[in-house]
Design a protein that fits this description.
Length: 493
Amino acid sequence: MKNASEQELVRREKLEQISKVCNPYPEKFERTHTLKEASLLEDNTAGVSLAGRIVFARKMGKLSFIRIRDLEGSIQLELRVDIVGEDKYQFFKKLIDTGDFIGATGEMFTTQTGEKTLRVNSFEFLGKALRPLPDKFHGLNDPELKYRQRYVDLISNEESRRVFLGRSKMYAFIHKFLGENGFLEVETPILQTAVSGASAKPFFTHHNALDLDCNLRIAPETYLKQCIAAGYDRVYEVAKCFRNEGMDPQHLQEFTQVEWYVSYWNFEDTITFYKKFIKSMLNELVGTETLEYQGNTIDFSKEKWTRINYVETMRDLFGFDFLDVDDVDVLKEKITSKKLFTLEDLEEYKSVTQVIDFVYKKKIRANIVEPTIIYNYPAVMMPLTRRNDNDNRTVDMFQVVAAGSELCKAYSELVNPKTQKEAFEAQLKAKALGDDETMDMDYDFLLSMEQGMPPISGLGFGIDRLMMLIYNQPSIRDVVLFPMMKPEGKKED
């Protein structure tokens, strides 16, 4: 068998020969049906015109079979020399390869083996593939090549097609469901002048026309709340966000997040709505509310999900009231004295919030499998969240965690401008200590808050991580069409 480079040379020679007969890259082809639609047609339906990429060809003397594919379906074509003519048949046999595009017109029938097939009366060549498909059409085995050459992966891998068709269906569901529940979609800036909306390390850039340093959006939160101040009752955005942080199987620096906000709700209302949302989505996309994910069964169908009080559970874990500690070195000393972690484990964390979050993720979140509501968080960790009326050291918020991953974060929003300013000032103090994931003083947001805001509850979730769970994928790169990769030749960390 010829190697890939030899095959490419042969295909280029065939392209030259095809060019002498017809345009190898024609302008268009008129289809009557998609391949998915054609597979449902009755036998003897005539005048059917189909097009697709050839993914299999069995060429014989006077009768050949090929299979063509598009993203949503595939179908078999039967070519007979006595129907298409000797010249066209030889053209097919000698010059057309797997990977090429073809358009064909004919009549539907079902073979003796039950295969829905188009008996071809005529065909047109629609495009030459100069590179061969993966051997035996089993897809790409090298994960890095899958991510770099997603177009080949989708041609050859049924599982990848299932995942990315599912992603498109997820977008359609989100818009439909939220629209039917009174939400209006908006767009907010990606280029921003204050790091705000989440605790994360940003990307920076420079706006030449305004001679202004900017950051890429880490979350759309503060702008969406400004929409609520402007009079929107329910608002949402499907937002590209950017966080200049580490890369692992659950994190990419560029990701897609959905955030919604509702006037006059609290976080308990949002819990009720999210449960309705996620159950409806699962039924729409995969037809079940029970998922299998990396060896775990995750059941979203239960009426009551487990609840964990964050502050109480962490107090029990620490053995002291960590809310009373505002010095990061004192907190580290207390944690190491309890032998929960070593100083080396905690060395890279520069603020109280970072240390608390690290302990939570390692000791609590990592062990959660079933859908679980984590609520009652420390206020120091959530600068945009409403303080609890009974203890202003805690906030009215929740996360849903399943299989050790955060699926969403939501809270009753902070709308008191005085408290908000104090929270931003605390963030600046943490930044001075070396915490590079803190927020700036967002004066535009404070100004909108001073204009007056109603009670608000909002929720955010990452589409990519939810896709991993729904479609049982081990890495976030498996659910992102074109994940960022290092240039070829440079090894990734």
